[in-house]
Specification:
By secondary structure, the chain is of the alpha/beta class. It has 2 domains: about 80 residues, Winged helix-like DNA-binding domain superfamily/Winged helix DNA-binding domain (Arc Repressor Mutant, subunit A, Orthogonal Bundle); about 200 residues, D-Maltodextrin-Binding Protein, domain 2, CATH 3.40.190.290. About 40% of the residues lie in helices and about 25% in strands. The protein is built from 9 helices and 12 strands. The strands form 3 sheets. Strands 3, 4, 5, 6, 7, 10, 11 and 12 form an 8-stranded mixed β-sheet that branches. Strand 3, helix 5 and strand 4 form a beta-alpha-beta unit. The longest helix has 29 residues.
């Protein structure tokens, strides 16, 4: 038996009128009659008794009406649950983010993720890259955006884009006359240091292990708005990634000799089966148009 035959039978049993039942099912009367007749042949008995203009359920019809009502409700529930599963309704994704990713970049990706899974419940956990690594392995988060150049071998990295480092400074600084700032020009400059900054680890990868030895660290802070406010006030310069939003009045120039960059990747635990929520987050990341300036 087919679900459409059961639907025809239930509607005819509800209306006791084949014409109205066919209209409500969106089929012709012959199609509805044929479907019910095939159902009767499979069940081995009549479901309806038609007397002139009156239609009645037979005893078999009344018995089947109860069973088929349950089957139809179960089929409808299965369709609803399948639709919810496809939309990830009720699913939760614990997503780790490193603090210095640009807000526009992040919201662009999260918008793309919402389009793929509009009912996904997203919990964002902000931390530095080392903490993200531990949280991933410990199961505290499901997936993470990270800029760490090296992670535990148990973590699978999906590279997304490359982001250059710039030096920021206040208007009137000598760097304003340069198109790009060689690393050696930072020697002796007053500097505003950001806690948990990935700049030193990315420089170490290029063979420059102690970048802060060349500058005079005057201020150390954690909040990005404070860091940028100190730089804007002329209290020092700071290194920051190119896609980080800037306060009005700040200037930026790319760092060169060497160029310093970080690789932004999506991190999951290797060998751990992807939940539907993780799978859709990975798919969204692979199809999202990440910043093109340093794209892989």
């Amino acid at each position: 038996m087919e679900l459409h035959q059961i639907r025809y039978f239930l509607k005819a049993g509800e209306t006791l009128n084949f014409t109205r039942a066919a209209e409500q099912c969106g089929v012709s009367v012959p199609s509805l009659s044929r479907g019910i007749r095939q159902l009767e042949e499979e069940l081995g008995g009549q479901l309806f008794r038609r007397e002139r203009h009156l239609t009645h359920l037979t005893d078999l019809g009344r018995l089947m009406l109860a069973h088929f009502s349950v089957m139809s409700s179960a089929a409808d529930a299965a369709k609803r649950e399948a639709s919810d599963y496809a939309r990830l309704a009720g699913s939760r994704l614990k997503f780790g983010m490193f603090a210095s990713i640009g807000a526009d970049v992040l919201t662009g990706y999260l918008t793309a993720l919402r389009d793929k899974a509009p009912d996904l419940e997203l919990h964002i956990w902000e931390a530095n890259c080392e903490e993200l690594e531990g949280a991933l392995l410990g199961g505290e988060i499901d997936i993470a955006l990270t800029s760490s150049p090296e992670l535990d071998a148990r973590i699978r990295m999906t590279p997304l884009f490359r982001e250059m480092f710039y030096v920021s400074f206040s208007p009137g600084h000598r760097f304003e006359q340069m198109n790009a700032v060689p690393m050696r020009e930072l020697q002796g400059e007053s500097y505003v240091k950001r806690l948990h900054c990935e700049f030193p680890s990315n420089l170490a990868r290029l063979g420059v292990p102690k970048p802060y030895d060349a500058v005079n660290v005057r201020y150390v802070g954690e909040r990005e708005d404070w860091i940028q406010s100190l730089v804007r006030a002329g209290l020092g310069c700071a290194v920051m990634p190119e896609n980080l939003p800037l306060l009005p009045g700040l200037e930026m120039r790319p760092l060169i000799e060497p160029e310093v960059f970080r690789l932004i990747s999506l991190a999951t635990v290797a060998g751990r089966p992807h939940s539907p929520a993780v799978a859709v987050a990975v798919a969204a990341a692979k199809h999202f148009r990440w910043p093109s300036g340093g794209r892989l």
